[in-house]
Amino acid sequence: MKKILYFLAYIAFFVTLDQISKTFLISYLKTQTNYMIEVLPFFDIVYAWNYGISFGLFSEHYQYSNMIFLGLNSIIIMYLCYMTITTKACLARMGLLLIISGAIGNLIDRIIRGAVFDFLYFYYENAAFPAFNLADAFITIGACIFIYDYLFCQNKKT
């Protein structure tokens, strides 16, 4: 039981961080010229809504993809929670908790706002990476940690 409370506190922290950043920036960016803040020559904070799934895929059909994504995302979160509780690898568990936190953060956006708010925008000359948010970063970092554990740590344990 103590382990589950630790997991929930960890998830709550990262989900809260994600939601606070989105809520603040949705309001603040509306007061800025062009709805953006130039931070560095290669990085801006922007006001962008993602109605599709990853990188805006299927955004033209967001009414349907949103409903499908809500269901799939919920199932995936439940499975990842099961994996987190049953895994013995501490590093893999940390990765899973980050993935769950990010998935819940974006799920909250879809439920409350109807779309995911993205604001971190990296670019260089004519090349640009699609805007993303903290939840997306948590998912990516968590996946990297989980894969690293699987590739490099699991072999040493056996």
Chart the SSEs and their pairings.
Layout: H1 2-29, E1 36-40, E2 43-50, H2 62-86, H3 90-112, E3 116-124, E4 127-128, H4 134-157
Antiparallel strand pairs: 1-2, 2-3, 3-4
Description:
The protein is an alpha+beta fold and 158 residues long. It has one domain (2-157). The protein is built from four helices and four strands. It has helices spanning 2-29, 62-86, 90-112, 134-157; strands spanning 36-40, 43-50, 116-124, 127-128. It has a four-stranded antiparallel sheet with strand order 1-2-3-4. A hairpin with a 2-residue loop joins strand 1 (36-40) and strand 2. Helix 1 (2-29) crosses helix 3 (90-112) and helix 2 packs antiparallel against helix 3. The longest helix has 28 residues, at 2-29. The two termini are 28 Å apart. The model has no long low-confidence stretch (mean pLDDT 88).
